[in-house]
Amino acid sequence: MLEDKSYADKIGYKMNGRAEIDVKLVLAYMTLFDCSVYNANAHPAKQFGRKEEIVRQYAQQAKKDSSENPFHILITKAVDILELRDQLEKRALDFVRESRLGNVKAGKKPGRRIGGSKSRNNHLLFLGEVVKGGISLGWIMPMLAGFRANVSWNDPKGTFSWKVPLPELLDRTIERLVTGIKEIYQRENERAEYVGRDPGAYRQCYDTVAMGVLECQVAQGQKNRA
To answer: pTM of this prediction?
Structure first.
């Protein structure tokens, strides 16, 4: 699925390698969308920072028949998931700057700014773009996991599709996602890694995206009737 992508040769599959993208992180992004395990009430907060465990899970799943292996379903949307990850970071940075959200000094550590250094080059490898600044993985993982609310899983069997188009859904939800995560970030005293492990952050992002899906569907229905 990834062979023809510009970043394919940047993914490292060997332990302790020097590749730009660790395959364990790629698997971690994909696992966020595993609807055979997670749903509206069960979220992957415990997966944050446990890449080795995810690799073990993948190895166990690989032994199963393809019809019972969720990774065989997930891999069909690997490109979409990886590009959505980078789109989220890019759009979040844009919103942080436009809203001056990045100037908020959150928590008990004076001087820390949301979004990181504005001068730092950040290579979004899945999009093939360079942006200024960056968003912590502790922010990205709950927001990305929220888009599981847009998944139609195993219907028909062995398939994974999006309920509504991702670009439209991202437009509708990005501001609410970033604002909600920022509030949790403040509550966690500016510890982004705590946000990445907070079940409430995943639940809030999922609910935000679920509402966005409904809004998109209503808008499409109104358009069809017009």
So the answer is: 0.88
